[in-house]
Structures
1.
Amino acid sequence: MIRQHGGLGYKPVDELHPVGLCETGTAFEQQVQIVHEGRSFQCRRILVKLIRPTRDQEWEIAIYTNLASIDASGILVAELYQEQVITI
């Protein structure tokens, strides 16, 4: 899992769709294609619309993952990422 930052672009493969509520907000998911250093791969983009902004006043965070949805739901990915950030 990595968090999306300004310079990392993506191309949507499908539409963003809601997957449910997590501890910090509402989670959405979509398949995307990322091209980096001439290589292309597909992954899931999990977008969390936050209840409260981050310390940088962001109201959304996006996380890329190559975990299959059968192994980790969008909600689980969001919660695992946020748990890791809080404990570091």
2.
Amino acid sequence: MTPQAEHHLTRDHIFTVMQAQLKKLADSYETIPEEIHWSDSIMTDLGFDSITVVELCCAVEEALQIKELPLNRWLNEQSEKDGERYTIASFVDLVLSANAPQ
């Protein structure tokens, strides 16, 4: 990744990286569908448990060469939500907010 790309993470780029990382994890998890959508729940639709969410988080951090994500905060916030929780879109937003210029 170029230094310029590092500082200009877009939702679409992060989503693409997440798709690639999910496909790498797919060998272990038969619940991962061929197509991954923004609204998919990482836990409900993809069947991940909290340990696998940590694995995904680490893989995304490494692939994007970004600092540590506040995963526990995200998990806690998502657990308190009504309706759709732990979505791909909310994880992408986590990456964006954690890497926004201060």
3.
Amino acid sequence: MTNRIALITALTVGALLAGAPAEAKGCLKGAVVGGVAGHMAGHGKMGAAAGCAVGHHNANKKAKQG
């Protein structure tokens, strides 16, 4: 089960990183923050995936404003 979650997380992060550099930057920063926060709660991989998604969203939002 853990390997399956790790694989899904890796594929999700990889798919998000395949976008434009600004999107990848937001994803990487969010993944680091989410991974640390998730690690503290015992869910580091899920936190990293969620952080990547939020960072990706925020980078897109910022790009549209500027």
4.
Amino acid sequence: MALIDLLDRLLNGGAVLTGDVVLSIADVDLVHINLRAVIRSITPDNPAPW
């Protein structure tokens, strides 16, 4: 039950996940990607923005 409670609190408040991916060869950065994701629940009171 603890995992379900954690997910419920996370989705009620929302969360932002961020990360970086860097592809390099011989210490030369070739590709740098920034990743961001917003996770939150969608209810009839708070519909999706799209």
